[in-house]
# Entry
Amino acid sequence: MTKTVHTTVKTKTVPYDVAEQLRTPEEMAAYLDAWLKEAPDDAAGIARALCDIARSKDILSKLR
# Structure
């Protein structure tokens, strides 16, 4: 008789912040445009995208 052993594997995750990926005005515009095209009625999502863009500008200003 074979005994089955079950093991649990934990997946490591790291926080992801889209604001860190928006580096140019073109990328920021494309990001907002994607929100507007994909979910034009999602006011909260669009507001979040605008907030992401504002944070990305703050992140970039600190790097310069």
Observations:
- Residues 18-63 form one domain.
- The two ends are 66 Å apart (CA to CA).
